[in-house]
């Protein structure tokens, strides 16, 4: 890795450009004065002092209070630990703040919107979230077991055990077997198969919320190569209408 690449990498870890240059220069020098660092780092001498003070605060260098001052970097392992700890603290702080903002914001979702979700994991997360909101009924369908991860199965089973009516439809015997014998779960097999190369999954929640996805690429058979896109809506007129259409459509292929 070149010196330039090292500087860029350190910047991505949170150091300023001058801090990164000074730190890299000190790794080359071992120890050095501001003048020596300036000559190696291509940092204005007046800026070396401030950058060095910041690096000392970060625990990345030591400063000898002599005349002139001399600077020495901590070991690479110590620097790694210091940067890692700082990143973890900032990550925790950021997500704690986001969590507080989310809670204080309440339910701000527009009731007039249809939302789009892309990616299998985000779609699954939304399915679980919607399923957990159900009060009386869930109607779920998926063409392949790859689209029914364990935590989604557990959520649907848990809702069934809580007394909700859960209906599962799939052309896949593996999917149907996931719910076979579960109390309050009705498992059904469609008479007609989905077109080859096309698959999807859906969830109806109390006829007031809906999620419908389409998987393109390999039809969800090979993890990591398919692309899933879903639309969802809750407590809207369009959710009620789409729920009605999907329910009738699925009932038609069940025979």
UniProtKB/TrEMBL annotation:
Give residue ranges for domain Transcription regulator TrmB N-terminal.
10-77
PANTHER family named among the record's database cross-references: HTH-TYPE TRANSCRIPTIONAL REGULATOR TRMBL2
Spell out the protein name for this chain: TrmB family transcriptional regulator
Organism expressing this protein natively: Salinirubrum litoreum
Q: What is the lineage of its organism?
A: Archaea, Methanobacteriati, Methanobacteriota, Stenosarchaea group, Halobacteria
């Amino acid at each position: 890795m070149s010196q330039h690449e090292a500087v860029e990498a350190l910047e991505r870890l949170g150091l300023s450009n001058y801090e990164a240059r000074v730190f890299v220069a000190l790794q080359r020098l071992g120890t050095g004065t501001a003048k020596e660092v300036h000559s190696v780092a291509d940092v204005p001498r007046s800026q070396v002092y401030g950058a060095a003070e910041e690096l000392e605060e970060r625990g990345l260098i030591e400063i000898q209070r002599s005349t002139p001052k001399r600077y020495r970097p901590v070991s690479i392992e110590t620097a790694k630990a210091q940067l890692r700890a700082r990143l973890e603290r900032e990550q925790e702080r950021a997500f704690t703040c986001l969590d507080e903002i989310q809670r204080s914001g309440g339910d701000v979702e527009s009731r007039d919107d249809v939302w789009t979700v892309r990616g299998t994991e985000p779609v699954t997360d939304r399915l679980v979230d919607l399923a957990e909101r159900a009060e009386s009924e869930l109607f779920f369908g998926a063409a392949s077991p790859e689209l029914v991860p364990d935590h989604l199965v557990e959520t649907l089973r848990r809702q069934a055990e809580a007394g909700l009516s859960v209906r599962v439809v799939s052309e896949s015997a593996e999917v149907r077997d996931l719910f076979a014998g579960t109390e309050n779960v009705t498992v059904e097999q469609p008479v007609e198969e989905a077109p080859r190369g096309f698959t999807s999954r859906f969830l109806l929640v109390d006829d007031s919320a809906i999620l419908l996805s389409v998987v393109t690429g390999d039809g969800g058979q090979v993890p990591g190569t398919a692309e899933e896109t879903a639309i969802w809506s809750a407590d809207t007129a369009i959710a009620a209408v789409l729920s009605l259409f999907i329910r009738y459509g699925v009932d038609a292929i069940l025979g």
